[in-house]
Amino acid sequence: MTNTPTELKYAASHEWLAADGTVGITDFAQDQLGDVVYVELPEVGRVVTAGETVAVVESVKTASDIYAPASGTIVAVNDALSGTPELVNSGPYEGGWLFKLDVTGEGDLMDAAAYEAANN
Amino acid sequence: MVPFGGWDMPVQYAGVKAEHDAVRNAAGVFDVSHMGEFRVQGPGALAFLQHVTTNDVSKLKPGRAQYNWLPGVSGGLVDDIYIYMVAPDEYLTVVNASNIAKDWAHLQRHAEGFDVTLTDESDRWGLLAVQGPQTESLLQPHTDTDLSSKKKNAFFPARLFGFDVMLARTGYTGEDGFEVFTDASEAETIWDKLLAIGLTPAGLGARDTLRLEAGFPLYGHEFSDTIHPLSSTYSWVVKEKTHVGHEHIRTAPTQTLIGLKLDRVPVREGYPVKVGGEVVGHVTSGTSSPTFGHPIAMALVNAQHAGADVFDVEVRGKDHPATRVALPFYKR
């Protein structure tokens, strides 16, 4: 059973967005991907539009595009992932966060209940 | 579960890395029942198999298995296969799942004029690949056959957990192991018994990382209807004889299959491989190696560039350096 915190918002493409603009992938997504071995993050200062490809998470199996769950400017990235990408598996909502947005507008997002219902 | 050759197959159970490590260090089991099995029998069986393959089937004795190729009429490979000799004039061939229909049509077409009967037994057989250094010790208590007396490529009937099966000391992981040919209706029961004696269930994901580390080509990636099979290091599969596609196999390949290692960025099938900014080939299979902890790949490159020590692989528009390393990456 995977974990879906109620205080976050969720994209159908399995990213979560926190109220402070932090973005990561869901526990469900990391579980499906398996062992994460590499994360490619966007550059700080980049302006992105909701739905745009902004990062790549690679497991042993495959490379998965990560889409911006909101429009805005990238203000921080999780540099720890370059040396320890497995944080995405061990703490998808904590140490495995990907980047932080200064949000100007959210994309089409769901609450935790709707996200869980969509992935059952 | 993902569709694979018309079957729904598990990519992973506990996770690719855990399954991979179990096979390298202990033992795991793969359900490869999706693979195809054709029986070839009759007074013309040997002559027919010699005609449609590149390796020397006359070297086989009953109870022995051989890796072999089905060359195409106009080049490339129809498939790469295993041939198991059951008895004089009787062989069982195992073919790739995605090629069953194509292989069957090809063999039927070339059987004309040979005193041979072909039977598609793909639905009759379950096939469980038990692989890893502990395979023999884990299986031995459950069969009366002395497994230590069976060498690589042995093929023999046995009773396992009280079921009549065929065992072959073959595999596709670079580890020791046995492949268990079962009646399809008994495969699930035997699978459960294998898990109960401590084998780790392993999926397609680990099968791919294991075979890639071991440098084994996979049809659809390193072999195809158009790729010259001698691009690979498997020239020993072609022996002195005449066969279907003879003249094509004996032309010099224009590409060479090489091994690459990278520092961090995994590279995947289709990514361009460059020397000095010029595209000289492409990745055929790539992953992050669970054994070595860095990305590895096989790539087909133009033969005149195959000796270069350093290449670049283009990943999402950016070039990343890759070092050529000898195949296989891993040898037990």
Automatic annotation (TrEMBL), chain A:
The keyword Glycoprotein does not apply. Its cofactor is (R)-lipoate. The keyword Membrane does not apply. InterPro entries: 2-oxoA_DH_lipoyl-BS, Biotin_lipoyl, GCV_H, GCV_H/Fam206, GCV_H_sub, Single_hybrid_motif. GO terms for biological process: glycine decarboxylation via glycine cleavage system; protein lipoylation. It comes from the Bacteria. GO terms for cellular component: cytosol; glycine cleavage complex. The modification N6-lipoyllysine is found at K61. Residues 20-102 form the Lipoyl-binding domain. PROSITE patterns: BIOTINYL_LIPOYL (PS50968), LIPOYL (PS00189). Binds 1 lipoyl cofactor covalently. SUPFAM superfamilies: Single hybrid motif (SSF51230). CDD domains: GCS_H. Keywords: Lipoyl. It holds the Pfam family GCV_H. PANTHER family: GLYCINE CLEAVAGE SYSTEM H PROTEIN (PTHR11715), GLYCINE CLEAVAGE SYSTEM H PROTEIN-RELATED (PTHR11715:SF3). HAMAP family: GcvH. Belongs to the GcvH family. The glycine cleavage system catalyzes the degradation of glycine. The H protein shuttles the methylamine group of glycine from the P protein to the T protein. The glycine cleavage system is composed of four proteins: P, T, L and H. This is Glycine cleavage system H protein. The gene is gcvH.
